[in-house]
Amino acid sequence: MQSTDLLRELNAKLLAEIAKLKKKFAEIKNKNGELKNKNAKLKQIIEKNARRDAENVEHKIRIKKLKKNTLVTTALINMQNSYSVGEEEILKVTTVLQPDAESKRHFASGPVIDQPINGATSDNINIKSMNEKETDIFLGEVYKKSVSNKIR
Fold first, then answer.
1. Domain for residue 117, yes or no?
2. Residue 128 — very low, low, confident or very high, per pLDDT cuts 50/70/90?
3. Which of 23, 125, 127, 137 is deepest in the core (most CB within 10 A)?
4. 3-26 per-position pLDDT tens digit
5. Which residues constitute the domain of residue 62?
6. How far is Cα 105 from Cα 98, in angstroms, rounded to an integer?
7. How many domains are there within the chain?
8. Cα–Cα distance, 116 to 92 (Å, whole number)
9. Measuring CA to CA, which residue among 86, 88, 107, 110 is closest to residue 96?
10. Is the model's pLDDT at 120 over the cut of 50?
11. Does the global pTM surpass 0.90?
12. What's the mean pLDDT in 107-111?
């Protein structure tokens, strides 16, 4: 009988230990669930930060391009202003008065270089020859490349 009592006592201790282990397992399982939730939230934050960082890189590249374009545009405008013909000169070249019409404007379709307008050759002084225009275009391209290289 003593052995039965010892076995019952041992069984009771083991049942109590099993209950403690089950309780501890439930606590660990609960904590594991909380950690999984926290981990999922952290992953979302990391993904969001990665997307934001990628957007920032794209924006930085775009800003660089815009600054470069601004510099080139400013240089071209300055260069164009130094070679520009005033609006009055353009109107003198492109406007042809018709003798039977009352101050109608007729825009020339062909080249007007070396063609006197209303017999006044002095109006054509500011008109560039085709060769000069090609030279200006070439110099403009060379200038653009040099500005672009300086920016890099």
1. no
2. low
3. 127
4. 899 999 999 999 999 999 999 999
5. 2-85
6. 8
7. 1
8. 10
9. 107
10. no
11. no
12. 48
Q: Which amino acid is at 3?
A: S
How many Cβ atoms sit within 10 Å of the Cβ of residue 113?
Answer: 13
Whole-angstrom distance, CA of residue 50 vs CA of residue 99: 72
Using pLDDT thresholds of 50, 70 and 90, give the confidence band for residue 102. very low
Chain position carrying tokens 């008109």: 127
The pLDDT of residue 115 is above 80: no
Domain assignment present for 78: yes
CB contact burial 124-152 (16+ within 10 A = b; e otherwise): beebeeeeeeeeeeeeeeeeeeebeeeee
Residue 77 lies in a domain: yes
